[in-house]
Amino acid sequence: MILERQQIPVLEVDATPLRVPELVEELSRYIQDGSTRTVLGHNLHSVTLTLSDDGFRNLYERSDVVLLDGAPVLWLWGRTGNAEGPVMDYRLGSTDWLPALDQVRGLERIAVVGAGAEANAGAVSRLQAIVPGARVSGFPGAGWDTELEEAAVAWLHREQPQLVLLGLGMPLQEEVLQRRLRSLPPAVYCAVGGAIEQLAGIQKLAPRWLGRLGLEWAWRLLLHPKRVAYRVFGEPWVLLWLLAARRLKRRA
Q1: pLDDT for the residue 233
Q2: DSSP label at 201?
């Protein structure tokens, strides 16, 4: 299958609309190929960063897969009429596709990078249950700094994983990929945000019906008001300003 990038109306960014079986097929192909690949996801936060930061935009433009993560991004893409079947099937947050890793052919070595020691160990244990035939190893990321980053790079070279789940939160995980991707061992690098804590059961997932209504932000705001408030109430205005500025610039 040849992956097709599609532009998200209004937001002026590209994504790779896939459902779980199609992503599994791509991951299987990447694992067999053995080269370096990246899998990212687009929500309103990543769109804002893409429109405001050159390094972030370049990373997304070079990525092999950019999934539809946030509900607003999904809905806007749905207006294109390109969905085959229900549009919601194309919404792939990390926890939507990680349970299907047992279907990825040839997957034998998984690395989990990020979160605190307890969450990291919990995610490793959960993934070992999901993919019992694979060796799953973990490297906690709490207190991430230059020294820890160097240690993580050296650890990845020793482990030689095929699939790396990088859960340092956005934009830190993307910044690490920008700095380090060329010096990392060949693998499929997936930016998974808070999925490590969610896999471990430390961070509660919103009920899926809330996600289908586009109200997952309300769940996160309730659980983590200080962390999420700016993204919910402040960042959308920044995004609107960035989009308006781009259009004014084009007209000028």
Answers
A1: 67
A2: T
Specify the pLDDT at position 212.
62
What DSSP string runs through 59-102?
Answer: HHHH-SEEEE-SHHHHHHHHTTS--SS-GGGGB--HHHHGGGGG
Measured CA to CA, the distance from residue 94 to residue 101 in angstroms comes to: 11
User: Hey, what are 193's tokens?
Assistant: 């945000």
Alpha carbon distances (Å) from 151 to 28, 37, 39, 145, 181? 28, 21, 23, 10, 15
Nearest alpha carbon to residue 64 among 161, 185, 181, 167: 181
The answer to whether the pTM exceeds 0.85 is yes
What letter represents residue 160's amino acid? Q
- In the predicted model, residues of the chain with pLDDT beneath 70 are 1-2, 204-215, 217-224, 226, 228, 230-233
CA dihedral 40, 44, 49, 52 (to 10 degrees): 140
The letter for the amino acid at 152 is: A
- Token pair, residue 115, equals 């979160």
Do the beta carbons of residue 39 and residue 63 sit within 8 Å?
yes
Query: Where are the alpha helices (H) located in the chain, listed in sequence order?
Result: 20-33, 44-52, 54-62, 71-78, 94-97, 117-130, 146-159, 172-180, 195-200, 208-212, 216-223, 225-229, 235-251
What integer pLDDT is reported at residue 221 of this predicted model?
A: 59
Count CA atoms within 13 Å of residue 89 on its CB side.
Answer: 11
- Please give the DSSP secondary-structure letter assigned to residue 213: T
The pLDDT of residue 58 is 97
Lookup: tokens for 130: 């999901």
